[in-house]
Design goal:
This protein has helices at about 1-30, 45-50, 130-135, 140-145, 195-205, and strands at about 35, 65-70, 80, 85-90, 95-105, 110-120, 160-165, 165-175, 185, 190-195, 210-214. The protein is α+β, with helices and mostly antiparallel strands. It folds into two domains: about 1-30; about 35-214, L,D-transpeptidase catalytic domain-like (Beta Barrel). An eight-stranded mixed beta barrel has the order 3-4-5-10-8-7-6-11. Strand 4 and strand 5 (about 95-105) form a beta hairpin.
Amino acid sequence: MRLRAVKTIGAISRHSLKLALPLLTLGLAGCGYYDSTPDPALSARDSEYLALAPKAEINPEFGRYLVDDPTGQPPGTIVVNTKTHLLYYVLPKKKAIRYGIATGAGAYGWTGVASVGRKQEWPHWMPPADMVERWPHLQPTANAGGLPGGPENPLGARALYLFQGNKDTLYRIHGTNEPDKIGQAVSSGCIRMRNIDAIDLYNRVKLGTRVVVE
């Protein structure tokens, strides 16, 4: 009888847990913090290239979520928090889409206000002169005219080119071929995103969009 009672209690406990888990999940989603958003639609080229691009598991903290807007900026603004490695695209009604990013390492970090002066799908990459100076192994790539767009390109699936007035700052918000670095300070100043997130942001952003990097 005692053994049967223990089994019954265990069954009740498991049943209660099954009922509680969905409620717990709903509670977390209800606060907005863990409200994930669907992936963007992909072109045939996107699907082909993404299947070949490097992949990595990332900390769920750096996933793509619909959240309460913490920035106070007007809708349509991009806000980059280099300390938390998070990017926000501000929506109406005090909401925002939040993305995990990789940012500039040490002295190569950049802050300021800019605007999106150019957009490019699967962009060409030319290593800047200062990068070639730091990493001479990139000289052959520069000599060859850079790298065409594709799954191994460091700019990934999309690039937003940041301008101040009519001047290109040479900083970008772009995809990456190193998704394992998301959530870290590792770049030469540009803002890296998972390729699927770069596509999602690219689809939302217009030329002239204000970008605040802080």
